Amino acid sequence: MAKRLFDIFLALAGLLFFGWIILFFAFVILITTGKSGFFAQTRIGQYGRKFTIFKLRSMNDVNGEKVVTKPGRFIRKYKIDELPQLYNILNGTMSIVGPRPDLPGYYDLLTGADRELLKLKPGLTGPASLKYANEEELLATVKDPVWYNDNVIFPDKVRINLNYQQHRSLLLDLKLIMYTIIGKKPNEEYFQ
Question: Of 26, 118, 129, 166, which sits with the fewest C-beta atoms within 10 Å of its C-beta?
Answer without folding.
Answer: 166
